[in-house]
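Hi F.,

I've been meaning to write this up properly since the lab meeting, where we talked about keeping a consistent format for the predictions we share between groups. The idea is simple: the sequence comes first, exactly as it goes in, then the structure tokens exactly as they come out, then a line or two of notes. No screenshots and no reformatting. I'm using this chain as the first example so we have something concrete to point to.
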Amino acid sequence: MLSTAPGADIGALSKELAELEPLVEKYADYRASERARDEAQAMLADPEMRELAEAVWLTQKERVPALEHEIRIMLLPRDAADERSGILEIRPAAGGDEAGLFAAELFRGYQRYAEGRGWRFEVLEYDENELGGIKGATAEVAGRGVFARLK
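Output, unedited:
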């Protein structure tokens, strides 16, 4: 919750506000979806509007529970490390060359995911085998919320 104590640190308040804004936006989306679903359900009785109302109702019927789930996740207590960067280490397990190939694909997938989120992905170690797979790979992933997403 936002603190209103006299002399409260403006930086801390700004940080709290920045953390709460996505939750407020998600809740507004949730309420709008609920209203759209309820309005569509009311229009189902009108023969001229039934087809459109069914399409809207079905969409919102699926969207409302999904938004509820997202809000519940957002309300979970945050881990102090959630905003930190992380070290990603991929090692193939038993499975020989095929496990190494899969591990290399997995590593590249994490790299693309990090780049898509605007995170810095720095390869620290990449030990390749003869077939293009890996024996092991390590990378530092830096950016906002890295640890929360990858843990």
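Notes:
The two ends are 26 Å apart (CA to CA).
The chain has a mean pLDDT of 88.

If this format works for you, I'll send the rest the same way.

G.
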